[in-house]
Design a protein that fits this description.
By secondary structure, this protein is α/β, with parallel strands linked by helices. It folds into 2 domains: about 160 residues, 3-Layer(aba) Sandwich (D-Maltodextrin-Binding Protein, domain 2), CATH 3.40.190; about 90 residues, Osmoprotection protein (prox), domain 2 (D-Maltodextrin-Binding Protein, domain 2), CATH 3.40.190. Helices cover about 50% and strands about 15% of the residues. The strands form 3 sheets. A 5-stranded mixed beta sheet has the order 7-6-8-5-9. Strands 3-10-4 form a 3-stranded antiparallel beta sheet, sandwiched between helices. α2 crosses α11 and α4 crosses α5. InterPro entries: ABC_Gly_betaine_transp_sub-bd (IPR007210). This is Glycine/betaine ABC transporter substrate-binding protein. One of its GO terms (molecular function) is transmembrane transporter activity.
Length: about 300
C-alpha cells in the first residue's frame, strides 16, 4: 500500500471517530438538558420574616422539581436591585415598600389599590410581576396588654384615643417625633393624652409590658412576640398606616418560560396569614430555631395542596 493511500485511509478513519464522538457528546448534552431541572434563583431580605418566607417558597419549588439557588440576607433595597439586574429571579416583597420606597409614590391606604398600583407600575418600569399577595400585613401598629384592653374596652386606635388618660405608654422615642408615628396619629385620631409616657429600648418593650411597667407600646404587626396571648394589636380603624402585604415579585421572563412557578408560589401564599407568620417568626426569634428548619416544618403541612396546584 502506497504512503498516500495509507494517509488517506488514516485521515478518513480519524474523521469518522471525530464525527461519532461529536455526535455522542451532543446527544449526551441534549439528554442532560432535557433531564435537568430548571434553575431558579431565590432572594430574600436580611430579617427573619423574609428569610422564612423565601425558604418556604424555595422548598415548594424544590419539591416540584426545580433546582433552587438561594441568595438570601440581602440588605436594604438590595433585593430589588438584584432582581432588576438579573442576579435573582424573585423574592418576597411588601406592597407598601414597593409603592413608597421603590416607586416613590404617595402612600395609599386601600390594600387593593396599593396592589394594583405596584403591579401596574412594576410591569411598565421593570418588567416584573407581582404574584398573588399572601394575607400577611406587616405594618406599623400599636400593641396593648390584654389586661388593659379588657379593662377599658380598647380594641381599636379610636378607643385608645378616647381612653388615653388611663394608659401608660412605653415609647421608643423616635416614634413620637415622626409623621408616620404619634405626630400623624394625633392629627388623624385626635390628641393622645396618655396617663404617662416613658422611653424604653425597643428590644425590651414586651418585657416592659409583661412586667406591668406600661400598658401600650409601638409594634410591627407580625412580630414573633405577638404570639403571646397577653398582647393585643389594636385595629387601625381609620386606616392611618398604609398596607404592607407580602407577595413574590418575579421576572416576567422567568414566569413566561416557567408558568408553573407562578402556580406553585401562589399556592404557598394562599396558606399564609398574620397568625401563621407570627408563629413562624416566634419559632426563630424567641425559640431560637433555625429558619430553614422552621420553613421546612411548615412546608410539610401545606405541601399536599401546593403540589395539587402544581399538578403534581
Amino acid at each position: 500500500m502506497s504512503k498516500n493511500i495509507f494517509k488517506s485511509l488514516l485521515s478518513f478513519s480519524l474523521l469518522i471517530v471525530v464525527v461519532f464522538a461529536s455526535l455522542a457528546v451532543a446527544s449526551g448534552c441534549s439528554k442532560q438538558g432535557q433531564g435537568s431541572s430548571p434553575k431558579v434563583v431565590v432572594g430574600s431580605k436580611d430579617f427573619t420574616e423574609s428569610l422564612v418566607l423565601a425558604e418556604i417558597y424555595a422548598k415548594a419549588l424544590e419539591d416540584n422539581g426545580y433546582s433552587v439557588d438561594r441568595k438570601f440576607n440581602i440588605g436594604g433595597q438590595g433585593p430589588h436591585a438584584a432582581l432588576v439586574k438579573g442576579d435573582i429571579d424573585f423574592y418576597p416583597e411588601y406592597t407598601g415598600t414597593g409603592l413608597t420606597v421603590i416607586l416613590k409614590e404617595p402612600a395609599l391606604f386601600d390594600a387593593k389599590q396599593v396592589y394594583d398600583k405596584v403591579s401596574s407600575e412594576y410591569q411598565k418600569k421593570f418588567h416584573l410581576t407581582w404574584l398573588k399577595q399572601a394575607n400577611i400585613n406587616d405594618s406599623q401598629g400599636l400593641v396593648i396588654t390584654k389586661k388593659a384592653s379588657d379593662k377599658y374596652g380598647i380594641k381599636t386606635i379610636s378607643q385608645l384615643q378616647a381612653n388615653a388618660s388611663k394608659i401608660r405608654y412605653a415609647s421608643n422615642g423616635s416614634f413620637d417625633q415622626r409623621e408616620d408615628g404619634l405626630v400623624g396619629l394625633n392629627k388623624k385620631y385626635g390628641k393622645f393624652n396618655f396617663k404617662s409616657e416613658k422611653v424604653y429600648n425597643d428590644g425590651i418593650k414586651y418585657q416592659v409590658l409583661k412586667n406591668n411597667q406600661a400598658d401600650l407600646a409601638v409594634a410591627y404587626t407580625t412580630e414573633g412576640s405577638l404570639v403571646d396571648p397577653q398582647f393585643v394589636v389594636l385595629k387601625d380603624d381609620k386606616n392611618f398606616w398604609p398596607p404592607y402585604y407580602v407577595a413574590p415579585v418575579i421576572k416576567d421572563s422567568v414566569l413566561k418560560k416557567n408558568p408553573k412557578i407562578g402556580k406553585i408560589l401562589n399556592a404557598v401564599s394562599a396558606k399564609l396569614d398574620n397568625p401563621t407568620i407570627i408563629k413562624l417568626n416566634a419559632s426563630v426569634d424567641i425559640d431560637k430555631k433555625e429558619y430553614k428548619d422552621v420553613a421546612d416544618n411548615f412546608y410539610k403541612t401545606i405541601k399536599k395542596s401546593v403540589n395539587k396546584a402544581a399538578g403534581k
